Amino acid sequence: MNEVEQLEGKEYRSGFVAVVGRPNVGKSTLINSMMGTQIAITSSRPETTRKVIRAILTTDEYQIVLVDTPGIHRPRTLLGQRLNDMVDESLSDADAIAFLLPADQEIGPGDKRILSRLRSNFSHKDENGHWQWDKPIIGVLTKIDGLNRSQLVEKLIELDQFGNFSEIVPVSAKEYDNVDEVRSVFAQQMPVGPQMYPTNQISEESAEDTIAELIRGAFLEQLSDELPHSLAVTIDAIEYPEEDESEGEGRAHVYASIYIERSSQKPIILGRGAENLVRVKKKLRTPINRIVGMKSTLILHVKIAKDWQSDPKKLERLGFN
Ligand SMILES: Nc1nc2c(ncn2[C@@H]2O[C@H](COP(=O)(O)OP(=O)(O)OP(=O)(O)O)[C@@H](O)[C@H]2O)c(=O)[nH]1
User: Fold this and answer.
1) At which positions is GTP bound (predicted)?
2) How many domains does the chain have?
3) Which of 124, 109, 121 is nearest to 85 (CA)?
4) Ligand 1 centroid vs 295 CA: distance in angstroms?
5) Does this complex have an ipTM over 0.95?
6) Considering the entire predicted model, what is its pTM?
7) Averaged over 72-98, what is the pLDDT?
8) Same structural domain, 128 and 263
9) ∠ at Cα 289 (288, 291), nearest 5°?
10) Which of 43, 143, 256, 294 is exposed most, by the fewest CB atoms within 10 A?
């Protein structure tokens, strides 16, 4: 906070909001709509969000760092366990937690599991036996675009009874309805504090991580249900042209490896006549150019890492540690 702001009595707020919810609840779409830029990957397939992706929303009044979490679920593999650990870490570090519940579905066992996990970690019972949150938990009712007014009111009441949330806010990220209100509710829950990141920084991820996530998301979209979650992507190198070259036709070269678990998955990834590769490259041309800051060529290699989801060494190499 600078002196002028102090004199005007305007206090800058800044902090972290962890976004949780069961798979497919609309976390990534909400983060993207709040940012107005594509940062987190979105896909209609559940559990596509693997990494804790941070988006940084900065205004004259506040800075909110949004932490997207992979869906909380029962771990079945070592990868599942690591993902759950990553979620716990983001939640403890956060100043507030946004718990997303979809308006187009009933509150279910997945939501109850998340609530009880939040309760056991971040709440206590007061002398009257009522749950009190130790940090603000904001209930966000997502996908309200399919509801009429009375259904909306009913859902909000249901949510209130379910979670005893510090705040409740409805939103349709898809129709951009009430997104401003979500921003301001989050901001109000942030502690007073100075800006943590420079104004023009929108993500804490490196160019490599962002591109890897984009490639992964693009393949998952292509592949419908054929391939399970046995797809990992790493960026091996981004080579920029020499200085004098860049004035002419200089291009960056982005080398990416796509890891699958079995060689039988290779034709699925490639598609007939390598059509999937071609589509993914075409789709990502503009976003990757924007990230590397110049025209670029994407070079994709499909590699086999047997059972990587259960091998600690391979997991580490693929960025899950
Ligand atoms: N009707 C409607 N659909 C939405 C809205 N927001 C997201 N969706 C859809 O819900 C699906 C899941 O959205 P995501 O943002 O990928 O969900 P997520 O919670 O990040 O999913 P995971 O990464 O699997 O945890 C996609 O098909 C979105 O188009 C909304 O406001 N309205």
Assistant:
1) 21-28, 68-72, 142-145
2) 2
3) 121
4) 31
5) yes
6) 0.64
7) 70
8) no
9) 60
10) 294
